[in-house]
């Protein structure tokens, strides 16, 4: 069975979470190396900055692509949703007119 778009989308966002979680893990381990005096304070600061820059670049690239995909979904699904909403509104309007007509005829 083919994977649904919702499942695929969930997996993509989950993987982005895992990538960011890996950066947090790396930063934690740098802190442990610093605590155990295997890294100098200035070196740890440089590595943290490098990690932060790399994480930001990855996130910018991936979230930019995700934004493009989500925008495409809005463009594709928006007209269908709008049509459905207009049909529901038209049905509600017809039903309301019918109820109003029934009340008016009962009063006579």
């Amino acid at each position: 069975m083919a994977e649904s778009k919702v499942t695929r989308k969930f997996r993509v966002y989950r993987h982005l979470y895992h990538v960011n979680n890996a950066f947090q893990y790396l930063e934690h381990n740098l802190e442990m190396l610093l605590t155990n005096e295997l890294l100098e304070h200035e070196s740890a600061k440089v590595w943290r900055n490098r990690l932060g820059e790399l994480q930001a670049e990855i996130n910018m690239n991936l979230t930019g692509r995700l934004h493009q995909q989500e925008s495409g979904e809005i463009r594709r699904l928006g007209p269908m949703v709008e049509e459905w909403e207009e049909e529901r509104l038209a049905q509600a309007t017809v039903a309301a007119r019918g109820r109003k007509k029934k009340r008016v005829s009962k009063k006579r």
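The CA atoms of residues 36 and 77 lie 54 Å apart. The chain has two helices and no strands.
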